[in-house]
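Can you give me the bound-state structure? Components:
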Amino acid sequence: MCGIVGYVGRRDAVAILIKGLKRLEYRGYDSAGIAVFTGDSGFACKKKKGKVNELSRILEQEPLTGNIGIAHTRWSTHGVPSDTNAHPHLDCSQEIAVVHNGIIENFQELKDTLIIEGHTFLSETDTEVIAHLIEKFYAGDLEDAVRKAVKELHGSYAICVTHKKEPYRIVGARLDSPLVIGVGENENFLASDIPAILEYTRDIIYVQNNEIVSIDLDSVSVKSLDGMKIEKTPEKINWDITQAEKGGFPHFMLKEIFEQPDVLRKIINTRLSGENIHFDELNLTEDDLVKTRNIAIVACGTAYHAGLTGKYMLEECTRTPVWADTSSEFRYRDPIVGDDTLMIVISQSGETADTLAALREAKKRGAKVLALCNVLGSSITRESDGVIFTHAGPEIAVASTKAYTAQLATLYLFTLYLARLKGALSEARIKELLSEFKRIPYLLEEILTRYKVDGNEIAHYAKDFKAYYEKGHTKSFFLYLARNINYPNALEGALKLKEISYISAEGYPAGEMKHGPIALIDENPWVVCIATKSRTYDKMRSNIQEVKARNGIVVAIVTSGDENIRSLGLNYVIDVPAVDEFFSPLLIALPLQLLAYYVALEFGYDIDQPRNLAKSVTVE
Ligand code: F6R
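Here's the bound-state model for the whole set.
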């Protein structure tokens, strides 16, 4: 986790670095810091516990000026959030400054040795060893010292390093944590992610594992760990910074919820030519896919819920056995995966450490790995055999919304593509489904138009929940019930709510109610029942009746026009347009996201940056 940024140029480095950090806050925000060369061989460092705004406040009171510097926004791994543990970290001579994203697994051994050698440590962090190691190896050439230092490190890192004696350059390196170079005119940048620097340049070089980079005013150099020069051509970024900003919405999360119809349109335009489905970047042969005997889907969090939905899609349409698992469980359970397995890893960021580790494990066991990923050039896309980009655009809110529906949409199309290749579904049914799929952006728009206006029904339900809670029902929580292909949506609805509103929430397959959870039902839980028209509709109606009979409060998501279900005495109703049951998860995801959003809004929480979380989880 953590976000790093570096700038060398002629402009005000502090302003550029602070702006960059704000755009990287999705990577962590428990402390922030900056180091800049202030001219006449001056060098200053400021660090502060809290969000980047806290650091900005300090800089307003005690301004720094300079044209070269590095900065960091932190998500703690080693050492509590504090001014001292904030980056940059310095060496004993206070001449070397380091910002780091990742984890140094052998930091304790290195620290013990460095202490014996006379180094003094100030923080509890793993990062500080990097500054002292560079100090140890420094003999007049920062790049050389960084190269020697990183060879000692086990774990993951993306770093930016400056030395007071070389106040014209920044040296960077990476292993398993992202780092990009922004190439400008008389200025160059380093950053964990493109939005931090996109305002200044669209020419980006993706730094690869075990590369050492050095940037100064008018040059960029990339070398291997052996010091061999590596030629790199910058890639042009064709998305806009406004895509990475709020665009008039109060929160990124709401903006991203409302972007979903356009994301679906983009996916349709990219993947469909008439009734032909294509994945140009796939890089797996038809033969690879046809000979697949089983499919394993592995991911974390929201991406896992998309994957679990994929299991229902793929089994139904391709008649291939599919299992889905969380990445952190997959790794340690000696999974049965071989050369007849297609492993699908799903990740918005492409940097999730558990998913990366699962991917490597599956490859070791001979599986072909296909990544469904949103971020170009990310580690997961580079290490997989094949890739399908999900085209959600940059997702900034920590709570994933548009990346989820983009993952679902991509899985739908991949399912139909594979079903066609395997001849597992009739051409007529594939065409029927594709034609229904093309309606989805309009149906999503219909839902969002309905819930756009201030004071909309879902916002009103959230208000009622808060009032109920404050009237003494402080044991209230949310239970999400669904069946079949919408069961993963129940898990996702619960995850969304708990991560931004801190209210306890659980997702359950409704059929499991009678095996335990029904004991929870009294007047406290608000039970969200996904009861749209489907093959399990009657069963869901029975579950609703069971909840009502025990005084539970029911929030039912139903198909528009279904008047019949209202006779069950539902407390709250959310309508979604009618759609083929197969695609219903795409529609139902939206009210679930909105409900979580409005509940968190009522309670006044920090929706885009919920506590204890970070957007990109690059630690195991
Ligand atoms: C929840 C959320 C997380 C991520 C998970 C995987 O809203 O965003 O649960 O889905 O951390 O992240 P990626 O998709 O980047 O691998």
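A couple of observations. Residues 160 and 238 are 26 Å apart (CA to CA). The two ends are 10 Å apart (CA to CA).
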